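Supplementary material to the annual report.
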Amino acid sequence: QQQVKQSPQSLIVQKGGISIINCAYENTAFDYFPWYQQFPGKGPALLIAIRPDVSEKKEGRFTISFNKSAKQFSLHIMDSQPGDSATYFCAASKGQAGTALIFGKGTTLSVSS
Amino acid sequence: KAGVTQTPRYLIKTRGQQVTLSCSPISGHRSVSWYQQTPGQGLQFLFEYFSETQRNKGNFPGRFSGRQFSNSRSEMNVSTLELGDSALYLCASSGGQYQETQYFGPGTRLLVL
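Predicted assembly:
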């Protein structure tokens, strides 16, 4: 049973546009929601993370929006650049030390110049 | 601060063999988690170690095992390799102020022939 569903599977955005990736979770015990960025041949790198006590968190061009009642969260990349072309993973965990991150299947973003 | 390091980076084995992968966490981090990444299943949690003790385990067969040393370095072992074990094996460390934040290494690419 997939506990974190991510969409779309792939995304093509024009340079300067907004990239939006969505995730939905099932387990209401989850209380930590990070997003990771992965380039080919590299490990996932933490981009930004949020806890359910806030509805939005912004770091530079990256914003997480969180809807606790709908059990959904999304990543917005503003002013998308070719260098943002990568695979993005949402994840969820119970937020305690040692607990597993449950990942979505990933979204491959391609930003065209 | 140096990041998470993993050795070797690439490995080719044949079915039935066993393999040991190594991970050195970020200095000061005492928690090490292991994940398997495949195109079909995505990122899946294997297990987590803290202070030389396995605290959490994913849904993988007993052929997958690990350990942690007193300096927090960790190894994972896969015995009786199967073709389906071909994957990128990622190690992540966490610690410090935000215990839930996991930082990934570059991974070990294992190919089983």
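The radius of gyration of chain A is 13 Å.
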